[in-house]
Amino acid sequence: MCLQHVSLNPPPNWNQYLLKLRPESLLFRIKLTGIRARTDCADIYREGFHTSGVYQIYPSGPSIPLSVYCDMESDGGGWTRRINGSVDFYRGWDDYKRGFGSADGEYWLGLENIHALATRRKYELRIDLEDFENKTVYAKYEHFALSPSAINAEEDGYRLQVLGFIDGGAGDSLAYHNGLMFSTFDRNHRAPLNCAQRCCGAFWYKSCHTANLNGLYLKGPHSFYANGIHWATWTGYYYSLRATAMKMRPNSLPFPG
């Protein structure tokens, strides 16, 4: 069972923290009407919207809107992100498939939505990390997809594909998970170990992980092994990070400046 599973609390002054990370950004919602359906944040960026905030995109078609937070400042913008903090990420398969949380705070976009996005274009992935000493690093991958060759992505476990690592100080903790299926406590793809239950999260586990970005929010050093929000090549298995963000965008998006 998941040890030390606790209610999660956000960092203090979370909105001020987000604005500190992106000084020029604002949190806002806009309703897109009478405009061609945008597949992702990059489409919105190309149309002249360069301020970070919550937008609607249509990765699965024009009749199915999806609210996402678009970071328009990191490396030129067009990223779709998720940040851990106030939302409980120890959840089952259906939640991780559909997505949960709020786009203007902490949320998981949903495996099916991520797959729909990543099958339309070639995408890259950036992972931003921050510890409780306000140090920030990132890891970047030039290619990112989920089950790109599968007829049924869910049956294939939304298998992770990442290539082309670029180090931004974090080290590469995701290579270990490349080619693996996603697991939750109620759908384990790495028998006999149930790593999702053992590590109190959900991820592309092997036996078990070097990255656990959906683990418990434990606020820095902790005594239980490997059940926090970890990126092992940076802070190891006994330090849970303050904030993480997984962002994807098309490889072809031009950078400003």
From TrEMBL:
GO terms for cellular component: extracellular space. This is Fibrinogen C-terminal domain-containing protein. Residues 32-252 form the Fibrinogen C-terminal domain. Signal peptide: none annotated. The keyword Disulfide bond applies. The lineage of its organism: Eukaryota, Metazoa, Chordata, Craniata, Vertebrata. The keyword Disulfide bond applies. InterPro entries: Fibrinogen-like_C, Fibrinogen_a/b/g_C_1, Fibrinogen_a/b/g_C_dom, Fibrinogen_C-term_domain. Gene3D superfamilies: Gamma Fibrinogen, chain A, domain 1. Keywords: Disulfide bond. SMART domains: FBG. CDD domains: FReD. It comes from Chiloscyllium punctatum. One of its GO terms (biological process) is elastic fiber assembly.
